[in-house]
Amino acid sequence: MENIVFLIASFFAAIAATLAGFGSSTLLVPVATMFMDLKTAIFLVACFHLFSNTFKIKLFWNKIDLNIFLLFGIPSICFALIGAALISIVPVDVVKSILAVFLIVFSLYSLVKPRFVIKKTRSSAFIGGGLSGFLAGLIGLGGAIRSTFLVAFDMPKEIYIGTSAMIAFVIDLTRIPAYLFVKIVQDTSYYMLIPFMFISAYLGVKTGKILLQKISQQTFRKIVLIALFFIGIKMLF
Fold this sequence. Notes:
Layout: H1 2-20, H2 24-32, H3 38-59, H4 66-85, H5 92-112, H6 122-139, H7 143-150, H8 157-182, H9 194-212, H10 217-236
């Protein structure tokens, strides 16, 4: 029954992440920790995240902005390795609290002042990519910070989702082998869930794309910012 609940939650997490461009890990990690230890949850959700981003890349392949991908992706890979290597050393509670406060303040201010965005520069792309990769590797939650910086590039929703998925994909390819190397999963029986997560990711992404076609660009941006706000609240409390 616990595994079924986890897989159902993963399906809805994939839908939400397709609509907002991020969020599957943030939604799914807390659910997973109800049934397993945090490190196992981070590993399994990373696998699910890889599957869902693979399907999003397939669906939005011709929408990916390769220039933005490279600006974000290269620092993401480097810092994801660092974060994954530190997962058994650094206390994650402090990092999560700082990130939560930032997301709450940024999303509220952006909703009240809709013309405000982080400046679209190479530096902001490097910082956003590095932070998202590091946090993904360390606590499994890098999508929110990545989306915070990607919003600055004001991309059409399909390009935003495809590019974000591609960046997340390379982060996952980097951190999952690192997790295996440091053996963060103690109970290997949880590996049996991986094929079922593949299926739930596929169904969730397909459903999310259908819903995405019914949402305007302005509404989409508000969804992202509101999602950032609630994710910040959830991470803080």
